[in-house]
Amino acid sequence: MKTWLIFWYGIFKNNPTFRLVLGLCPTLAVTTSIENAVGMGCAATFVLVCSNGLVSLLRKLIPDAVHIPCYIVIIAAFVTTVDLLMQAYLPALSDSLGIFIPLIVVNCIILGRAEAFASKNPLIPSLVDGLGSGVGFTLALVLIGAIRQFVGTYITIAILPAGGFIVFGLVLALFNRLGEWNARRKGDLPPMPVNLDCRHCTMCPNGK
To answer: How far is the C-alpha of 49 from the C-alpha of 32, rounded, in Å?
Structure first.
């Protein structure tokens, strides 16, 4: 696959939030403002790119029996790095994001890209894959954060936890509708709506 297509897929076709429906905990928790959304997105992108790159470089050296623990150690190292950097240079943002920065370690987007792509591909495509997925995740967070912040100035529920679920559900429905419209415009069968279960995740090699 061409490099630019890998990047494009990460942002749109396989967007972690709106197409794969992954990483919903930070998506719903930190998108009360655009600032928080950008901060979380940049942190996750940094970890995605760095962990993808290192996993790709070590893919032939890591035994299959322990590859998942090894990936988690690699991801944890980069999460610790970004956490310490944010505490040192962006303390207000670090305090605002709180526990969700350390929890990037268990973010299924990052582990999923390491397992499904970086462990099977050379360095440059793996870096591009991580960047595309990170940018797609960031854009999704910013979109939800912008809606919640704007609506929250008039309707308080938008910045409450329930508001996160409502906004996410509406935007996800819009993405499904746009996908159906685009398919019909091209004369194709409309895609199945995004399902909130692992069976329909295209991240895994055996996904549908």
So the answer is: 25
As a whole number of Å, the end-to-end CA separation of the chain is 19
| Tens-place pLDDT, residues 163-196 | 999 999 999 988 888 878 877 777 776 665 555 4
Cα distance between residue 73 and residue 41, in whole Å: 21
CA distance 178 to 94: 35
Angle between helix axes 67-89 and 108-116 (nearest 10 degrees) is 130
- Other C-beta atoms closer than 10 Å to the C-beta of 106 total 13
Q: List the domain boundaries for the chain.
A: 3-200
CA 198 to chain centre: 15
Give the span between the Cα atoms of 164 and 148, in whole angstroms: 7
Contact 103, 191 (CB under 8 A): no
C-alpha distances in Å from residue 86, one per residue of 52, 82, 83, 101: 21, 6, 5, 9
CB environment 18-37: b (16+ within 10 A), e (fewer): bbbbbbeebbbbbbbbbbbb
Q: Would you say the C-alpha torsion 35, 37, 40, 44 has a positive or negative sign? A: negative
Does the predicted model carry a pTM greater than 0.90?
no
Q: For residue range 19-46, what is the model confidence (pLDDT) as tens digits?
A: 888 888 889 989 999 999 999 999 999 9
Neighbours of 188 (CB within 10 A): 10
Residues ≥6 apart with Cβ < 8 Å to 11: 132, 135, 136, 139
